Every structure is written in structure tokens, then in C-alpha cells.
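Quick one before lunch.
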Amino acid sequence: MSERLEDIAAAMVADGKGILAADESSGTIKKRFDAINVESTADSRRDYRELLFRSTEAMKKHISGVILYDETIRQKAADGTPLVDLIKGAGSIPGIKVDAGAKPLAGFPGDTITEGLDGLRERLAEYYELGARFAKWRAVIDIDTAKGVPSATSIGSNTHALARYAALCQEAGIVPIVEPEVLMDGAHDIDTCYDVTKATLTKLYLELFAMKVKLEGTILKPNMVIAGKKSGKKNSPEEVAEKTIRLFRETVPAAVPGIAFLSGGQSDEEATANLNAINAIGPHPWKLTFSYGRALQAAPQKAWSGKAENVPAAQAAFAHRARMNGLAALGQWQQSLENA
Ligand code: 5MM
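Model of the 2-O-methyl-1,6-di-O-phosphono-D-mannitol complex:
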């Protein structure tokens, strides 16, 4: 495969394909495993991720790349094959989460800042050697309007860090996935989500320009424009699609090859239906696909529940969600296919 950043980025958003976010840090995967009564050990984490990467048909047809955690990029399958080789063997691209997580932003209660820039140049060089051709950095922007969250300082410092990360990735021959996640957890309405996401994306592209990042060699991983979960409001896929696309047309340059959404706690089918509605109102200047963690993995995790005899059922559940989202990335999903 070509090593040019723009070619890697184009392959990450190839037609009908999207990204599997399997980069849960140790604390997050423990939470996921607790929910299915599985002890989180290096071996159980390996077994679970191995079953995903060995879902060959789904990987080949619908998964363009996999975001890994530091532990996973170094792990070997039970038969000794490096997990990275399983991913490459399925025609998919290995990627790596390089941020060190969101920490409280000093002086701004309720805001966070994502850390991890120190030593990043050296870590990227090592990850390149280990096979990573793209990376991910997630900035977390919460919404709590009564408390003045997010502050302009939070948006400014998080987007500045994203731009510094992106520039270092490109220097290392690695495509940066730029993820400014405006959380869907709050009590806000869809228009507040629109306004905060607009402020965030506007500042993000100013920072990326200032840092001389080549947009053709980047992928944006944003939230959809949607009401917060605690608002109790459910927006129709058509409203989510209309507002999300209107916002991107105002803020995301056409030079960006692709936008790969996070699912953010939406249900599996909601995340698929919303992505489908977004693509159904195209054409758009960028590819629009998925980079889902929970919305791709909740079903296979439940089906697996830590038992070797459940591996085929878990792989079938993963293949189903990958196919549904692959169709949604083309605007060809229908509700009736969910039960087929
Ligand atoms: C898979 O979850 C990722 C890792 O999160 P932690 O660092 O907290 O363990 C997360 O960054 C994920 O890639 C994105 O948020 C998208 O995942 P969802 O589940 O929102 O689609």
C-alpha cells in the first residue's frame, strides 16, 4: 500500500468501509468486561480482540482500519501471530491511540484537557515501526451551560493540542485522526450541541492551519449534532442529519478527505440510522463513515461473554454491525435489514 498520507487517509474512508475503535484503555475495557462478567486480564483482552480481528469477512469488507491501545499493538494472538499482522492480513490498517487521556483543566472546573504531547515524537516513531499508519487523539468537550462549560479556554487549549499532535503525526508518516468529542451526555438540546460543536470545529481548523497540517492527510472524528442524553429528547435521524451536515458545511474544509463519526453512547441501531440519514442527503464534499467503539462492540461483547464456545456467535454479531454500518456509510441501510 502507498505510504503517502493522502492515500492512507483515502483508504481509511474507502466506500462502504469504516474504522473499528478498539482502543479502550485498561480502565475502560475493564468497565466493558465488568458488564459481561468477564475478568479483565491481558489474556482475556487479547482473546476478545483476537476474535474481532479474525472476523475475516467483516474485516475485509467493512473495516478499513482498527484503532489499537498501546498494549494491543504489542500483543500476539494465541497462536503467536502478532495482532497487527491479523489486521494487515485482513486488508485493514492498524492505528494507535496516542493521547494519555483527559484530565481536569486547572482553573476551569468541569473542563478537561487531553494530555500526552511530551515524548510524542519518539512514541510515534516506535508505533510506526510496530506497524501503525494512523493515530488517534481524543479531546473531550463537555456541555453544562449553567456552569459555563465548556469555556473558551478549554476549546482553545484542546484544539491547540490536537493541532500539535496532528503535526507530529504527519512528520512521522502517520495520518492523524483528529477527534474533538463534544459529549452527548448532558441535558442540552440539539441547538446547543450545534453551537458548541461549531465553536470547537471553527477553532480546530484555525489551529490546524496555524500548525501547517496538511488537511488532505487527516481524518476528522466528530460527534453528530444531537440532543444530550439527559435532555430526554430524541431527535429523528433526518433532523440529526440536516443539522450535522449544515454545521460541517460551515466549518469543515473540503480538503478533508473523510469524516468518521464516534457513536458517543447512542444505541447500535441509532448510530447506524443516523449515519445512514447523513449519507442519504448527499452528495457531500467529504466521505462520511463510522469510527465506532461501543456501537460496533456492544453486541459482540454480549454474545461472547468470555466463553470460547461463544466466539462464532460474537463474530456473527460483529459482522452484522459492521455490515449495517458499511451500508449506512453508503446511505443504503434500511431498518428491515436489521432482522434479516
Ligand atoms: C473505544 O473507546 C475509545 C477509548 O476510550 P478511553 O480512552 O476512555 O478508554 C474512545 O476514544 C473511542 O475511540 C471514541 O470515543 C469513540 O467511541 P464510541 O464508543 O463513542 O463510538
